[in-house]
Amino acid sequence: MSKFQRKHSFASGTTISWLEPKISLPNHFKNGADENFTTEENKASSVREEQSVSDSSQLTMEPEEISPEDEVEDTCDNKEDDLGAVEEQRSVILHLLSQLKLGMDLTRVVLPTFILEKRSLLEMYADFMSHPDLFLAIADGSGPEERMIRFVEYYLTSFHEGRKGAIAKKPYNPIIGETFHCSWKMAKSQVPSDTNSNSSSHSLSEQVTAAEESQGQAESDCYTVRFVAEQVSHHPPVSGFYAECAEKKMCVNAHVWTKSKFLGMSIGVTMVGEGILSLLEHGEEYTFSLPCAYARSILTVPWVELGGKVNVNCAKTGYSASITFHTKPFYGGKLHRVTAEVKQNATNTVVCRVQGEWNSILEFTYSNGETKCMDLTKLSVTRKRVRPLEKQGPFESRKLWQHVTESLREGDIDKATEHKKALEERQRNEERHRAETGTPWHTKHFHKEGDGWVYYNPLWKSMPPVQDQPVDTN
């Protein structure tokens, strides 16, 4: 794919990893420090680690094709509204902060287990598809202008569902070779068709019932969106993810490198990488990036803020969008503010402006003077479909982290820490084994192209190329 042939230079800097326990902390700092297991636990852990080293070749097998028919509606709800653990462990947080310096990257810092969200980062990326109706509607735009505006609508609505509850916590760092699979079914009647650009999303009454209708529809009356994510690199930590809807002839491929820094009373995370949405029926590619994220007020009630400028571009049509996530000023100002402009590059004409909050209400103003408001709190969220835990492979996210998740749900932080440390130690042992034997790491679902990562069997490989036609810029 042409866009992935280009070089995307990662920003320079120290390799980022949350997993290397280089800072020595006192023994009383249990959650993430050097604490001893009992002899019995050490034996069990060693057996598991030795087995994982000898069985590491299993990770290099051919990709497993996951059928959406094996997946069922997800009933897991991991909202993070409990402040109890954070309040109880405030002294631990203070102790950790005392050892950090402003601007320090978090490569060598082990974060305490109680601040972890009960899911992997790979699963969090799947939340970008929580409104599949808006995603699928992009392809049905009547022209390049409307398709770009619909992409911006989808993009701006894709972040709020990623925050599970009011408390900001950190998802698990994926283990190299870890994967996450899921899908969504969307009733065809709930996907907007090629109407004018001002009506590309449903009325509120339709939004509320969209997910319920999708569940009751026959297979032929639903679109299926498939999603797969894989941790393709440990140094640096890079995730690849891919989603497609074959019937709509559209797919998105992305790779993200997360870089984290300590900023005093907050932690900043830069998302380095690029995504490309391909609308194969139109022969269009939309390149985009992701904003930075900040965990604020880490000593009191931590919350998430997005910041930075994001550009969206479609080279074929000449339309682009500039999106700015505004961080709150020290004095005054609103939280979670976002603004955007959609332009026709040839004429430098602004065809749509957006303002509002990325987790609340967005207002779209079009070139004809009409406006539209979207209340994100009332948008229907379509639950993803996942295979039951007993049918998942050992390196699928939920199966891999199940003991950590169960311990966190039970409030047993020490037990969760033990399970987490065992996984991290196994990863280090396997990495050491590969280095000693000169064995290269082979990914399952993604391969490297330039500095990007591309899904091994993308939709554009099986779809005939679209003949180049004059672009209608209306």
What does this molecule look like?
This protein is of the alpha+beta class. The protein is built from twelve helices and 19 strands. It has helices at 2-5, 39-54, 84-88, 90-97, 121-126, 132-137, 144-156, 204-216, 397-400, 402-409, 413-437, 459-462; strands spanning 72-73, 116-120, 170-172, 179-187, 222-233, 238-245, 250-262, 267-279, 284-288, 292-296, 303-314, 319-326, 337-344, 349-357, 361-366, 371-375, 385-386, 446-449, 452-455. It is globular.
Shape: globular
Mean pLDDT: 79
Measured between the Cα atoms of the first and last residue, the distance is 27 Å
Got a strand count? 19
Q: What percent of residues adopt helix (DSSP H or I)?
A: 10-25%
| Total of helices | 12
- SSE class: alpha+beta
Radius of gyration: 23 Å
- Which segments are poorly predicted (pLDDT under 50) over 5 or more consecutive residues? 2-60, 199-211
Strand content: 25-35%
The biggest sheet, with number of strands, parallel, antiparallel or mixed sense and barrel status, is: 13 strands, antiparallel
Quick tags:
alpha+beta; 13-stranded antiparallel beta sheet; 474 residues; 24% helix; disordered N terminus; two-stranded antiparallel sheet; 12 helices
Task: Explain the layout of strands and helices.
Elements: H1 2-5, H2 39-54, E1 72-73, H3 84-88, H4 90-97, E2 116-120, H5 121-126, H6 132-137, H7 144-156, E3 170-172, E4 179-187, H8 204-216, E5 222-233, E6 238-245, E7 250-262, E8 267-279, E9 284-288, E10 292-296, E11 303-314, E12 319-326, E13 337-344, E14 349-357, E15 361-366, E16 371-375, E17 385-386, H9 397-400, H10 402-409, H11 413-437, E18 446-449, E19 452-455, H12 459-462
Parallel strand pairs: 2-3
Antiparallel strand pairs: 1-17, 4-5, 5-6, 6-7, 7-8, 8-9, 8-10, 10-11, 11-12, 12-13, 13-14, 14-15, 15-16, 18-19
